[in-house]
Amino acid sequence: MNPIIEQLNNNLKVLYRQALDADNQLEALQKSGHGKFSALLKDPAFSFDAKRFKPYILDIASNVETLSKQDDLDKTLLESTVMKLQKIHQLLASFNSK
Predict the structure, then answer these.
(1) Average pLDDT of 67-84?
(2) Cα dist. 96→4, 23, 41, 64 in Å?
(3) Is the pLDDT of residue 1 over 80?
(4) How many Å apart are CA 22 and CA 32, to the nearest integer?
(5) If you count Cβ atoms within 10 Å of the first and of the last residue's Cβ in the chain, which end, N or C, has fewer?
(6) CB-CB contact of 53 with 40 (8 Å)
(7) CA-based nearest residue to 46, from 11, 97, 81, 72
(8) Does pLDDT of 35 surpass 90?
(9) What distances in angstroms separate CA 43 from CA 39, 54, 97, one per listed residue?
């Protein structure tokens, strides 16, 4: 396997676990009447808005899967995927620090 794809997958695994934990915390907050917001992240890098982290992770995973099927990596898609990973990583870090 391509080492870049391996690294992307490793990052995704870590972020996926963090995203599930954060989504559980968000669920608990909403059940207690808090966490009233329309989207976690409004960013043009993503073509949608979501109230949970998992949809963002799944979107990135889809990009990584597309990249993994290419013999020559699409540089634009790779850059976009890395940028999305960074944005979600920063958002999760910010969420977990509060």
Answers:
(1) 96
(2) 27, 11, 15, 25
(3) no
(4) 15
(5) C
(6) yes
(7) 81
(8) no
(9) 10, 16, 21
Range of the domain at 44: 3-96
First to last CA, the chain: 37
The model's pTM is 0.91
37-71 per-position pLDDT tens digit: 778 888 999 999 999 999 999 999 999 999 999 99
In the chain, the number of structural domains is: 1
Q: Is the pLDDT of residue 76 over 80?
A: yes
Q: How would you class 75 by CB atoms within 10 Å of its CB: exposed for 0-12, middle for 13-18, buried for 19 or more? A: exposed
Three-state secondary structure string covering 19-48: HHHHHHHHHHHHHCCCCCCCCCCCCCCCCC
Is residue 54 a contact partner of residue 91, using CB atoms and an 8 Å limit?
no
Q: Which pair of tokens denotes residue 92?
A: 């999760």
Which token pair is 50?
């979501």
Q: How far apart are CA 36 and CA 38, in angstroms?
A: 7
